[in-house]
Design a protein that fits this description.
Radius of gyration: 20 Å
Shape: globular
CATH topology of the largest domain: Dihydrodipicolinate Reductase, domain 2
CATH superfamily of the largest domain: Dihydrodipicolinate Reductase, domain 2
Distance between the termini: 46 Å
Bound molecules: nicotinamide-adenine-dinucleotide
Oligomer: single chain
CATH class of the largest domain: Alpha Beta
Number of helices: 10
Length: 343
């Protein structure tokens, strides 16, 4: 098998999870570690490098020397995702980017157009699409045995205190993070809801910053009422809780309902009987509550590249979720109902 040469740009928290997942894939080698802070790049390379891996302080420096990179993992702050992905595509490099795909509608559209016009792949790390609980839930919904979804709720209550924001200057800023608990933490749960229910048509939302006033510019708490074609959904997310609770996602159908709570799926059928499914976690680290399917998601990306097929997290597949995030922010900021048709 020909070696797949990979680079990682942004060697902070999440890059470790990417590097570990890459190390476990046969035929993949991390050739370049890139970070404006070379100490971080070096520290990742020591554990996950191939012995000859190179360190770079910028994308431009990397591209000057790395003549045959097959893929780049973008693990940088949010505002850099689009420019770095476009730079990589312009150099013929496939991209596996962290969420969110963008922080503004215009730049997401620009990215979609650029990706559609080239033969390289762009995937977005919505790793929870690979969670056993979600895959089983989708299988049940698609079988039709519970009937059509008529309602849903999503709840994410985590703890992102002062120390979280103090550890990275970009976090908590509108220009670099682009938002708070919605676009950063709970976007995964919103994404699963959209995949289960379908295209959203209308939203009304409010948001606030309760806990870290004056310290962060972004929302720590958000609620939204989302109308889908045949279902209404409630969504609540907050970073101002004292704990990192397992996420809760419930779908009420015509003939029963299902609930994902952490790694457990519970299904109630029409007669009221209940089935419970527990899924193993990969136990990547103690933060597995935010979703530990990075290895499955990343392995699928490389299998997809080798087999020339798309995967569950192709850029185009995240459009509904990203547009909903933008609609929710628009509704909360302008204090009005936002219709998808207006877009
Ligand atoms: N999928 C998930 O569940 C998940 C979980 C955590 C974080 N993330 C995402 O991962 C990304 C990074 O988050 P993090 O928590 O690791 O942040 P972080 O601040 O720990 O890491 C970001 C790194 O990027 C580096 N950097 C900044 N500007 C750079 C530049 N111009 N060139 C090269 N490197 C640069 C920083 O020095 C830092 O090391 C974000 O998009 C975040 O939303 C995803």
């Amino acid at each position: 098998m020909e070696l797949t040469n990979v680079g990682i740009i942004g060697c902070g928290n999440i890059a470790k999870i990417h590097a570990k997942a890459l190390q476990a894939i046969d035929g993949v080698s991390i050739a370049a570690f890139v970070d404006i802070d070379l100490v971080k790049a070096r520290s990742l390379a020591v554990t996950y490098g191939n012995g000859k891996s190179k360190l770079y302080a910028s994308f431009d420096e990397m591209i000057k020397w790395e003549k045959r990179l097959d893929a780049l993992h973008i693990c940088t702050p949010h505002y850099l995702h689009v420019p770095m992905t476009i730079d990589a595509l312009n150099h013929g490099i496939n991209v596996f980017m962290e969420k969110p795909p963008a922080i503004k509608r215009r730049e997401f559209e620009e990215l979609l157009t650029r990706a559609a016009g080239c033969d390289r792949r762009v995937a977005v790390c919505f790793q929870n699409r690979y969670n056993g609980s979600f895959i089983k839930a989708q299988e049940i919904l698609r079988s039709g045995r519970l009937g059509r979804p008529i309602g849903a709720k999503g709840i994410v209550t985590w703890n992102r205190g002062r120390e979280y924001y103090d550890a990275a200057a970009w976090k908590g800023t509108l220009s670099e993070e682009g938002g708070g608990v919605l676009i950063n933490q709970s976007i995964h749960t919103l994404d699963l809801m959209v995949l289960m229910i379908g295209e959203p048509v209308q939203v009304e939302a409010t948001f606030s910053n309760h806990r870290l006033k004056g310290r962060i510019e972004v929302e720590d708490t958000l609620e939204a009422f989302i109308r889908f074609a045949h279902a209404d959904a409630l969504f609540y997310a907050s970073n101002a809780y004292a704990d990192d609770s397992p996420i809760l996602l419930e779908v009420v159908c015509e003939k029963g309902k299902l609930r994902i709570e952490g790694n457990t799926l519970t299904v109630w059928n029409e007669a009221g009987s209940r089935a419970k499914y527990e899924f193993q976690t990969a136990a990547l680290n103690r933060k597995a509550y935010w979703g530990d399917s990075h290895p499955a998601c990343i392995a699928d990306f490389y299998n997809g590249l080798r087999e020339n097929r798309s995967t569950l997290v192709e850029l185009a597949s995240v459009k509904d979720t990203f547009s909903l995030v933008m609609d929710i922010y628009e509704s909360a900021k302008e204090n009005r109902v936002v219709n998808r048709k207006e877009k």
